[in-house]
TrEMBL record:
Residues 10-87 form the Insertion element IS402-like domain. It comes from the Bacteria. InterPro entries: IS402-like_dom, Transposase_6_like. This is Transposase. Pfam families: DUF4096. Signal peptide: none annotated. It comes from Amycolatopsis lurida NRRL 2430.
């Protein structure tokens, strides 16, 4: 059996991801072209991210749809919060299996404003010895 390519999503991971993806119903009256399978689109997204090629150069021969289709799917899934939900799900599973080493965890919150009594940032001090005319 050959080695799995890094951009191909295995069945175990797909079982976790699929329920998080938004359902898109096909129109009844004017259905248009059939939508690309979500798993194939995910593999296309993974291929582009893994190889760092531009979206428009995604090879059609792989069967993952066009680069634009994969890019739109990534955008839609990001807006729907799929990646955050998946991250939380995987963290919970790893934590439940006692596979996370929390002693090495780091929390960084410098970009989040402290609410309810947190220090307010002070004005930056001037490094000029004398105030300029435009600061009076």
């Amino acid at each position: 059996m050959g080695q799995r390519r890094p951009w191909e999503v295995d069945d175990g991971l797909w079982e976790r991801i699929e329920p998080l993806l938004p359902r898109v119903e096909r129109r009844f009256r004017h259905p248009g072209r059939k939508r690309l399978d979500d798993r194939k689109a995910l593999c296309g997204i993974m291929f582009v991210l893994y190889t760092a090629i531009p979206w428009e150069f995604l090879p059609q021969e792989l069967g993952y749809g066009s680069g634009m289709t994969c890019w739109r799917r990534l955008r839609d899934w990001t807006e729907a919060g799929v990646w955050q939900q998946l991250h939380e799900l995987l963290l919970a599973e790893l934590n439940g299996a006692n596979l996370l080493d929390w002693s090495r965890a780091a929390v960084e919150g410098s970009h989040v404003r402290a609410l309810k009594g947190g220090r307010k940032p002070a004005r930056a001090r001037s490094i000029e010895p004398v105030s300029g005319r435009n600061t009076m």
